[in-house]
Design brief:
5-stranded antiparallel sheet, Rossmann fold, 11-stranded mixed sheet, alpha+beta, 20 strands, Double Stranded RNA Binding Domain, 389 residues, binds S-adenosylmethionine
Length: 389
């Protein structure tokens, strides 16, 4: 299964909405026509170039035609780097605010399943486009949107006013929701989440829904999760499809913390061999990699490829100093495994892979998540068949 991104998929770059009509539900057509994305973009934007994966700066002053084309294209557009610390036209290090890919926005609004009279909370206002679409459909007084970055909040407010739309835009930490506006019928998160805050559950009426990109720290991947809130205040629901979002500011993974795990490689690590191949660890957009994250909790994983013939897969425990690394060399049938610390991470990865294969390699949509006071539990096919994540 390929991921839809804030980023997106190749060959889907035609002017919106022609490219992805399948994502645009009939009840949203008028709002998308009345609330164009261009109204919410600054003069300097960074458009995602699908073939190269690069962010390309486009200035409205220098290239007005290119700017308009980018605004109308089915591509994600970065609007802020490095939490606003980056200046200049070249891309910064970490994209921290964006206007998501239009087909992703349309697909999420379709899956949110709103009806007239519903109250909606959005977390991650960004440009304000999504909040504007919701306000056009439901009325401004039914929509609250929370944004953590002060400058981004201000820009969104200005754009919304200019567009004649008036949702409530709050500057704050959306991980706490916005209790003043509760109860909500729907909560939509437009950032990647690792832990669903209980505040969101408490602010949604029973039977209401929370739609959020969710994933584990095992990878950057997110899967779109649709939780329904139950009478007892817990929530459960299935994963719908792979997506990829920038993460909630307070739930980002700081990779620097792992520097201390491996002061010297391989140090005192135990050495063994494996038959698992690099391909079997799953690609960036694979369900398999996502599922491995569900089965190997509290583990961060990254693959370094210093040259074409070698790749090193790293695994770091989030709770102890345990780590594992596997060196894959072209033509080597049994790659070398290094494991250090009390947690044998590679053994867990192999075991997770065996489990997935034994289950018949289930697709993402057979998995789901339950969230409650006792934490988060992933499940396969049935919430009764669950384990902590
Ligand atoms: C992908 S952008 C949202 C796109 C937006 N919905 C739009 O229509 O343009 C993600 C946004 O989430 C914001 N964000 C990150 N963490 C947040 C938090 N804890 N609370 C509220 N907003 C947050 C970021 O600053 C960023 O603007």
């Amino acid at each position: 299964m390929k991921a839809d991104r804030e980023g997106g998929c190749a060959n889907d770059e035609l002017a919106w909405p022609r490219a992805s009509a399948g994502h645009l539900a009939p009840e949203w057509v008028d709002s998308f026509a009345a609330v164009p994305r261009a109204l919410f973009l600054s003069d300097l934007i960074w458009a995602h170039d699908m073939p190269t994966g690069r962010s390309v700066p486009v200035s409205r002053d220098v290239d007005p035609v290119g700017w308009q084309r980018a605004a109308e294209a089915n591509v994600p557009i970065v609007t802020q780097w490095d939490d606003g610390q980056h200046a200049g036209t070249s891309p910064g290090t970490v994209p921290t605010s964006s206007a998501s890919m239009p087909s992703v926005v349309a697909g999420m609004l379709r899956d949110l399943d709103v009806r007239e009279g519903m109250r909606v909370l959005e977390v991650g206002t960004g440009t304000g486009w999504n909040a504007g679409l919701l306000a056009h459909r439901l009325g401004g007084d039914q929509v609250v949107s929370v944004e953590i970055d002060a400058a981004v909040t201000e820009r969104a407010r200005t754009a919304l006013t200019r567009a004649g739309l008036d949702p409530e835009v709050v500057h704050g930490d959306g991980a706490r929701g916005w209790p003043k506006g509760a109860p909500y019928d729907r909560v939509i998160i437009t950032a990647g989440v690792r832990t669903v805050p209980l505040d969101w559950l408490q602010q949604v009426r029973p039977g209401g829904a929370i739609l959020t990109p969710w994933g584990t720290h095992y990878s950057d991947q997110d899967a779109l999760l649709r939780l329904t809130v139950r009478e007892d205040g817990s929530a459960a629901g299935p994963f719908l499809r792979m997506v990829e979002f920038m993460k909630l500011r307070n739930q980002r993974l700081d990779w620097n913390r792992f520097r201390e795990h491996v002061p010297q490689f391989p140090g005192d690590a135990d050495v063994s061999r494996t038959r698992l191949t690099l391909a079997e660890l799953g690609d960036r957009y694979d369900t398999l990699r996502f599922v491995m994250g569900l089965r190997v909790p509290d583990c961060a994983h990254v693959v370094n490829q210093p040259d074409t013939g070698t790749a090193k897969a790293w695994f770091f425990d989030l709770l102890s100093r345990s780590w594992a690394a596997v060196v894959f060399r072209d033509g080597e049938p049994e790659p070398t495994v290094y494991q250090s610390g009390p947690r044998r991470l590679w053994d867990e990865v192999e075991s997770a892979h065996r489990w997935w294969t034994a289950c018949g390699s289930p697709d993402l949509t057979r998995f789901g998540l339950t969230v409650g006071r006792d934490g988060q539990r992933a499940w396969l096919d049935d919430p009764g068949n669950s384990w902590p994540v």
